[in-house]
Amino acid sequence: MLPPLTSAGTAVSRRTFLAAAGGALAAAGLAGCAPGGERPTVTFHQSKPEAVPYFRDLAAKFTASQDRFRVLHDMATNLSASFVRSSPPDLGCLNYNLEMARFMERGALADLSDLPAAASIRDDVLDLTNWYPTYAGRTSVIPYSVMAASVIYNRRIFEQNGLAVPRTWDELIQVCEALKAAGITPIYGTFRDPWTIAQGLFDYTVGGMVNVREFYKKMHEIGEKVGPDSEVSFQKTLLEPVKRMVQLKSYVNPDASSRGYGDGNTAMAQGQAAMYFQGPWAFGEIEKAGTDIDLGTFPLPMTGDPADLKVRVNIDLSLWVPEVANAREGARAFLQHLMQPEIQNSYNAEFLGFGTTKDAPAVTDPRIVEMQKYYDEGRFYMGASQFIPNSIPAANYFQSIIGGADPEGTLRRMDADWARLAFRA
Amino acid sequence: MSSAPGTITAGPAAGTSEPVRAGQERSNWPVTIILIVCTLSVLVPLYVTLSMAFKTTGQAVDGNAFSLPSPLTFDSFVQAWTLTNFPRGFAISVFVSVTAVAGEIIVSALAAYAIVRNWDRRLFRWSFFYLLAAMFIPFPVVALPQIQLTGLVGLDNPLGVAILHIVFALAFNTMLFTAFLRSIPVELEESMRIDGAGTWQVFWKLIFPLLGPMSATVGIFAFIASWNDFMMPSLIISDPELQTIPVLQKMFQTQFSNSYNVAFASYLMAMAPAIVVYLFTQRWVMAGLTQGAVK
């Protein structure tokens, strides 16, 4: 049918076609050849940004120290996508939270109980993973670093005003009043970022008054029947702490509602306020300003009894190996390498974490040293905001309470959300 | 992109002042001022980006975003370069973008040509509507199945991302090309066929060159979309060593930490190619904006 092609025409089109095909082939080749030679590659997923150079260096050293595996430091993989594709990283080193617990609950993480490292973890720290849904009969995650959080305070401001660290709720109010009278902002609020309210004010006030674990255990049992008449509920159990949270609002900086996390760190570095409801992760940011400042921490007193004082903890880094990991053997080898005391302890010392093993040394950094006692005695709780599924916009609810919404009505709404979610599940 | 409003501002103001008196020039002032204020929305953030990139970490967090960097430092660039392994990420990004640009132009032009010249046949007409229907399917909706599919066929890599870009843009690009193709007279083609050219030859030697302006438009859109894309590479590419620049840059800003200076240095480096491409293709961009407007 077609008229005969001229030779020039054929040449051009064929050349173009071949070039295109060649390009595609080269691309496929580039993508197909994962570099690394014969050694199996262990993908090590770790995305805590400030620790990236630290772990990247560890991975490179481990790769050089033996010739069985090559450890590839990975901070770019999208975890959910990789599990969907059945090609998750071989070893994860991440914050352990409700989202991560979903993988564990569905049995996506392999059992690590036979590793010697699993036996070396403090029982009450290992038990923290059981606050979340678990997969029966497995030790799926090994806590690597625990972060303890409590109120950050400026020691010099306290000294200059002759104030001692408060140990009861009344003392706390007195301290705030004294600071206010002296013209100093008692608490720096960063209410523009909802999460800072959830993890700061809300978690500290609730954790200081309510048994968080029991509360959520019962909330799950009651499920769709959570409401005004149930044994526990947001509107009943958490009303008192939330009311106190609103009370503390009168001691924050006047522009708190337009200030974010970054502003808070800058303000604390410049000594603009006496107290700051943030965890030790903020120290690294405050430090960046390079100012000379003396900060410490104390648990927020919520009752009249100093024996009730507790600090908020979270498993900042935990190690896990997926069930479908390609390089399980290598992942376990590198996991054990990371768990060696000299490596784990020096990580925690550098990044202000608390050790998770039975023989971990005490922290020495003056900014967090005051929390060691509570950590050793097991006087800690996990943040109440961390057990609310993302489908309930809890942080935004707290933000609206701080912004002036009625606490009772908002908590009632959270109960309704909880019940709806339980009904759907 | 960024200086486009500025260019438009200068155009009419300078144009009217030339032939007539100063009185008429003044009548344009309010518009000019409004447009100058509008350019600030681009220039101010750009200034902060530039000055932040040269600041030390201490100065970057001191709360004065508008201060000039002192001392001037290039440390942020060095850090950003090593932390993201910039050369590799850059090469991958270039590969994805170039493949997407070339693929989108060629595939869509071929499809549009076939459809327009066979408009009287039902199969082609309906295939055009079928392609258009895809415009209503955004990537996030089909993200999960795409992740699984690309994983199954071994396309969980930059090539897969480029192919997905080509496919997802096919609907819009084909529409642009068909609109433009209809304005090319069939008589041109017929005269070439009388001289003995085949369909393939007609396309490459006559139609494709004539499609030039529209190809430039499509290419520019394709480049910007694929160069800046975060979601698709982040979900599709499984090997962290083959990740694109926007995804690698994610690590500079998280909930708990900000490295403004390093982040902005890195953004500047990533922006550079887009700006260079824009400088060279500026006049096609301007022409391309109105290309599909009038048939």
Can you characterise this structure?
The complex is a heterodimer of chains A (425) and B (295). Chain A is 45% helix and 12% strand. Chain A is of the alpha/beta class and 425 residues long. The longest helix of chain A has 26 residues, at 7-32. Chain A starts with 6 loop residues before the first helix and ends with a helix. Residues 1-18 of chain B have low confidence and may be disordered. Chain B has helices spanning 4-17, 22-27, 29-53, 57-60, 75-83, 86-117, 122-133, 143-152, 158-181, 186-194, 199-210, 212-228, 231-236, 245-248, 260-289. The longest helix of chain B has 32 residues, at 86-117. Helices cover 73% and strands 0% of the residues of chain B. Chain B is mostly helical and 295 residues long. Chains A and B meet through helix 1, strand 2, helix 3, helix 13 and helix 14 of A and helix 4, helix 6, helix 8, helix 9 and helix 11 of B.
Question: What is the element layout, followed by pairings?
Answer:
The complex is a heterodimer of chains A (425) and B (295).
Chain A: H1 7-32, E1 41-45, H2 52-65, E2 70-74, H3 79-84, E3 91-94, H4 98-105, H5 116-119, H6 123-126, E4 142-149, E5 151-154, H7 155-160, H8 169-181, E6 185-188, H9 194-207, H10 212-222, H11 234-237, H12 239-248, H13 261-269, E7 273-276, H14 281-288, E8 295-298, E9 311-320, H15 328-338, H16 341-350, H17 372-376, E10 380-382, H18 394-402, H19 407-424
Helix pairs in contact in A: 9-12, 9-18, 13-14, 18-19
Chain B: H1 4-17, H2 22-27, H3 29-53, H4 57-60, H5 75-83, H6 86-117, H7 122-133, H8 143-152, H9 158-181, H10 186-194, H11 199-210, H12 212-228, H13 231-236, H14 245-248, H15 260-289
Helix pairs in contact in B: 1-3, 3-15, 5-15, 6-7, 6-9, 6-12, 7-9, 9-12, 10-11, 12-15
